[in-house]
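Notes from the pairing session

We agreed to fold both candidates in a single pass and log them together. This is the raw record for the first candidate, unedited. Please don't reformat it; downstream parsing expects exactly this layout.

Candidate A
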Amino acid sequence: MAESFLFRAKRYLRRKIRQYRSGATVSHPEFLHPEAQVLNSTLAGKVVVEAGAIIRDSHFMVSEARVGRHTRVWGPNVHVHCLLHPVEIGSYCSIARNVSIQEYNHRIDRISSFFVSCNLFGESMVQDVESRGPVVIGNDVWLAANVTVASGVRIGDGAVIGANSVVLSDIPPYAVAAGSPAKVLRYRFPPEVVSRLLELQWWNWDEARIQRNRALFSSPLSSELLDKVK
């Protein structure tokens, strides 16, 4: 019994050391999955980090955020900020360096856009900001380097956002978008394939099923490959 307890305790400590190495600061570690890793990053606020996700060289200053399974938030200088509404990042996403996700904005309908209420009147920062709503980044989304995602934006599953883009409006699933503001350039797959992928929702599979369908992930996608899904 004692040996069993000692083994479990050592395994727990090894897992925690792996999670928090390289100077990570996590204000609510209870929301960090045991199989997630946070490396040289700050998670301030309620940040739910799901199994297999890795957050590296990044900063979350949030009221509430979620990072899905196996997503890579790969800094340096990835910044996620929210105050009035949550930020949600789906599973199997790739977030590159210098990405900024900002749920709120300065108010510009007052005499000053400066945070007067917060800095001079001692009130909550909530008084000085406005928001268009939650930021929702779907599953299997790639945000390339230097992308900015604005308040209220929803990026659909499977979308790709090109480097240096500013996303001010919603991006459909499996679209390739770029520019400032970002506009859809094309789609990754034909409409019938996109429909099948959205129905399939492979990102919700367990890892055993992904292993059984290895060819689906290691070859150019086609309808024929989708027909062979196990």
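Candidate B (folded immediately after A)
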Amino acid sequence: MPYAADGWIGQDPIPGGIEISEQQYQEGLAGMRDGLHVQIINGEFFVGPLPVPEPEQPPDPTFKDSAARLNAEYQADIAALNQAFGTAAMAGGATQAAKQAAITNQYNARKAQYQTDYAALRAQYGV
């Protein structure tokens, strides 16, 4: 009596395999010659293409990963505001104080948003 297991067929018992009919054995041989794969699916013999594994899902971000991303975004925004503040100071003129005040307001708003986002992140991860 022939036997089959995932990727194998033979006339002798195969560990983890099942008994198959002579017709299934011949189908398995023909399929393997054609590049197909012998499989046992839910205890049933099947000859078909080699199964394509599902892609691995990326791991969920950790608190450290999420905090690093949040910090990097914040630092980039603050660097841009610092550069704008310096540019306004260098340009001088009658509107310098107004420009710097507007940038200071943007800085304070961004800092408050960062603190809110960081607190939410801590709550999300229970840290």
